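Handoff note, outgoing to incoming analyst
You'll be picking up this chain. Sequence as last confirmed:
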Amino acid sequence: MYCTKCGAEMPDDALFCTACGEKIDHEDEAASETTESGNKEKMGKRAWNRKNASDSRKAPKKGMKIALIAAAGIAVCGLAAGVVLLNQPKAVIARGVKNTWKAICTEESGVPEYLGLRQISRMVDTGKSRRKAELAVSVGPQNMGIGLADVGLSGWLEKDDKGRLLGRLSGTMGEMEMAGLDFYHDEEKTVAGSPELYSEYFYVDHQELKEKLEDSKFRALLEEEFGIDWEGELDTERLDLLAEYWDVSREDWKALIKNMDVAKIDKRTFTVGGKDKACQGYELTIDRDDIRQVLEDMDDVMLNNSMLVNAAAEAAWTSPEDMRRQLKEISKRLLGALKNDLVLQVYVGPKGRIVCVEGDYSLNGEVINMSLNGSLELTGKKNPLDTVYLEAEGKVASLAAGKLTFSRELNDSGNMIKDNVNLGLSATGAGMFNVSAKAEANASLNKEKGRWNAEASLTLPGVQGSASANGTVGDLAKGKQFVVTLDDASVGAYGLSMPFVGITASYGVEPLKEEIVDPTEDVKLVNVLKLTRDDLNEIGSEIGNNAGSGGFAFPGMGCKSVPASTTAPCTEAPETKAYDSGY
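Most recent structure output, in case you need it:
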């Protein structure tokens, strides 16, 4: 209910306005209520507005001036109140989280922006597309141009907007396709077969499969005849668990955010998008009891979920009852160690985005005694993840300590895009061990020439490794087609490179030009769910005989395929039916 004098919100049963003190007449309020709705109510309001407008025209000019001044005063006060409310620290932080998340999810920069990968991804996920991938490995002294054995995989996949899939995966040697797997999938069935190895295709009816898996007798048959122990349920246990977690903890999280204290602190300067920016600081204090409540309720969900408890018990070689007792004890110790409020320093920069979060926390219990502190900076110019600095340290009493560092810098200038990523990890344990590891990756793309290069290195105790690769990005229509090739790759360990291993690969995506047609009428189908052990033994023998005698079908004879030697993944396939086995 709102006050008729000042407009402030108040309880429905209030006798006086909590803001201005005006007495509330509930009888008049009840008498003024109407049961009319829809168009009648709207017409009544319009008539009331016209009447008042007519009355105001008849009013003296002095009264009009007073009304205008009063209205202007109310508008100014309302605007001022809105500005004050919107600039409250908690509102700024909430808006900062929203803006940061939006920038990460919806804004592109660097390589994704240049290649139009968002449009490509949308086409692959929801529209019609054709994808082609190839991988070839050559063993031999590559610097002399000699390959002793060229083996690889080649595959393509087509998808239409009705959810139908058609594809082929095949093995290659040199430019010859040795054997492959054709498959088709729609809402009703899944079909797969290898025309080079077996003359029939296998299919599964989805509804029949669901019914059989719900039949305990069929499960027993699977275990007895084929040694398949099916214990899964067709219901969405894991999704149900996530939904339960959300439902149980939702109110706890709301209370945590509502009770959170936010106060302004001094500004700090950060380099955002290559320019120094002064960012306003805020200190967030989250009550320990609110954190405990969230953890307690989430623990209850876990302890009452038989799927989780049974899985943990099986992994630990114990009974579900013992595992539940152990989990309760661990939870009790953890919650007992939560003795402090969580305090974070958050800095909000340009466009209302969060550019830095810092904080530390200590667990002090009878058994658990550890401290954590860290800092995360998201200072990219357009996408926060273009420039990331993360540093975190932890210590468990005086027993062990660890440190994690991560950085990413992407620079998109002119015709060149450069990306650098570094990862470092170190750990020590009371003089017993001292471990450190680091990894670095660098990549670049020349927009004008379409050449890309990538290098990576890894250092572990006693081990050093490196890898490099280069290739091209070609036949590119931004947001409509994407073709990338890997021309060469090398791997090294302990400083010794391995030039005798050559790797080439290619991947492409383009719009689907023709509708996918169900090809299963042209082939002989075998229902997988009705096969016996004898049937499987007979099928295995025929496949083994064909493979052993070299009875393979070559490209163009019985399958829609593309020779493995092609470098353009989206080349049109020969005009043959996808499931014409040739037998």
